[in-house]
Amino acid sequence: MTLLTAERTPAGTSYLATGQGQPVVLIHGVGLNKEMWGGQIVGLAPHYRVIAYDMLGHGASPRPASGTDLVGYAEQLLELLDHLELAQASIIGFSMGGLIARAFALHYPQRTGGLVVLNSVFNRSPEQSAGVIERARQVAEHGPNANAEAALARWFSREYQAANPAQIAALRQTLASNDPQGYLTTYELFATQDMYRADALHGIRVPALIATGELDPGSTPQMARELAARIPGAEVAVLAEQRHMMPVESPRLVNQLLLDFLHRAQTIENPAEGIVA
């Protein structure tokens, strides 16, 4: 595999880009960075132009200003598309990235060619909300490393953790090395914005896929089904025996899901491609 060199937009967003064809943008989860998408970059780049970037407050991108809301994170993506001179892209968001992808599709529908929300949150129960708000409080008090061990236990199967100790150690280091204020700003949005503009989701009119893992405790199959029910024509996929970090733990499985959806979405946009002479 060719080693990709990160580039920057004028506003400072750090991103990787490779491949050719229709553009696909990957948005990582809170506490992570663009490097989480290695398996997807390898799997998708032979078919699409793949762009992965660091969200505000993460990786090599700038820290968000105090009080930045989801619109600010969506505007970061808009500036990236403008920099790359892309009129439109399919947006794939994981976890917190799924909230950003939703906000982007709502605020910039003309720039959204398709929407994929992976392992993300919607309509948390009071108990679920209380739990994640408490984790945000711990982050505010103790910093980005406050919940690392519990997060890794939620994210990965025990078998995967045992088989990949070096990767788990690297992820633990990534979490600990996050900018404290950038991480906290993002985590507080993640903890409170699961119902962001829920009453407007019916206005999303692009091909959409909402997917999660059967065993994802924080981004449950029920959440995926409820979110998909709000978006006209949205597909739902629940991957058997998968936990939260299924793009990392099972990249081939997730890649096939994404490739199948992106092909169907492209056929919908260009019906002639589906006609066999």
Describe the structure in your own words:
InterPro entries: AB_hydrolase_1, AB_hydrolase_fold, AB_hydrolase_sf, Epox_hydrolase-like. This protein is an alpha/beta fold and 277 residues long. The protein has one domain (7-123, 195-272): Rossmann fold. Helices cover 44% and strands 15% of the residues. The chain has an 8-stranded mixed beta sheet, with helices on both faces. It is globular and about 50 Å long. The termini are far apart. The relative contact order is 0.15.
How much is the radius of gyration in Å?
Answer: 18 Å
Q: Name the shape in a single word.
A: globular
Number of helices: 11
CATH class: Alpha Beta
CATH level-two architecture:
3-Layer(aba) Sandwich
**Strand arrangement in the largest pleated sheet:** 1-2-4-3-5-6-7-8
Q: Strand-residue fraction?
A: 5-15%
The SSE string, one letter per element, is: EEEHEHEHEHHHHHEHEHH
The chain-level structural class is alpha/beta
Estimate percent helicity.
Answer: 40-55%
Q: What is the total tally of β strands?
A: 8
The largest pleated sheet is described as:
8 strands, mixed
Q: Mind telling me the CATH superfamily name?
A: Alpha/Beta hydrolase fold, catalytic domain
- Quote the distance from N terminus to C terminus: 37 Å
Give average pLDDT, whole number. Answer: 94
Provide the number of structural domains.
Answer: 1
